[in-house]
Amino acid sequence: MAVxxxxxxxxxxxxxxxxxxxxxxxxLRFPDFFCRIHAASITDTLGAGLIMLGLxxxxxxxxxxxxxxxxxxxxxVTGPTATHALAKAALxxxxxxxxxSDAGDASQQEERG
Length: 113
Fold this sequence. Notes:
elongated; mainly alpha
């Protein structure tokens, strides 16, 4: 039973690390601010949650498990809230999302006839 718990814990830790790495890559690759914060919010919330759940399976005592659960709840609440606040502040500051290149090409083709 302990081996199965270790395997599941490591799978969660590796999956969480993968999502955090993909979110970091999204911060570098996406074109505008709104796409970047979307990538960071989704992947970091999920990645951090998976890492915490993997650590939860390895916790030796119920007090450690309770603290990890509180951290997961804190991350799930504050991550999307902070992203929403950043996006709303950017919109109020005059930053607008860039139109996608696919949508621009389609609208130009419709205008041409």
